[in-house]
Amino acid sequence: MTLSMYQASIPVFVRGLKNLSTILTKAEGYATEKKIEPAVLINARLFPDMFPLSRQVQIACDSAKGCAARLAGVEVPSHPDTETAFPELQARVKKTIDFIQSVDAKKIDGSEGRDISLKAGPRELKFKGQGYLLTFVLPNFYFHTTAAYAILRHNGLNIGKMDFLGEV
């Protein structure tokens, strides 16, 4: 049995984003319980030159929606990066899940050889669909979801590996 491009992408993103949403819910509760201003956690970073939690969530979402759209050959939805509160970050995650689940699997399957190009700063990156998914998007998605997890864990949120992985 082969693994389709859809199976290797959309269910992975949905699971990761749902787990991220659960972690954000726990973070909001933690902030309330410990009387921490939510902005402290939302703007927290692991290191001064790294993005804060809010940007990690935004980029994880952008990675998933951009991948789904590019593999399917549809326009990537634009979401302004304006989230400054936990409910706004949750809405961003939900909007992303809703979009990627709306993409027809038939448009993604067979995209292994599709030409994909995107701007990364001043550079234009070019891929074939399979390489784009496996060597660029999935590592990027996991990097930013892991960074979000690590920021919150570093700030005292009682979460562990199973919170990141979700139920098995």
Describe the overall structure.
The chain contains seven helices and two strands. The chain has a single domain (10-160), classed as dinb family like domain (Four Helix Bundle (Hemerythrin (Met), subunit A)). The protein has 168 residues and is mainly alpha-helical. The protein is 61% helix and 7% strand. It has a two-stranded antiparallel ribbon.
- How many β-strand runs? 2
> Could you name the ranges where pLDDT drops below 50 across 5 or more consecutive residues?
none
Mean pLDDT: 97
Q: Over the alpha carbons, how many angstroms does the gyration radius reach?
A: 16 Å
Helical coverage, percent range: 55-70%
Distance between the termini: 22 Å
**What is the CATH architecture annotation?**
Up-down Bundle
H and E order: HHHHHEEHH
Structural class: mainly alpha
CATH superfamily: dinb family like domain
- Classified by CATH, the class is Mainly Alpha
Q: Which geometry do the CA atoms define?
A: globular
Treating each run of at least 4 consecutive H or I residues as one helix, how many helices? 7
Q: What amount of the residues lies in strands?
A: 5-15%
- Sheet with the most strands: spatial strand order: 1-2
The major pleated sheet works out as: 2 strands, antiparallel
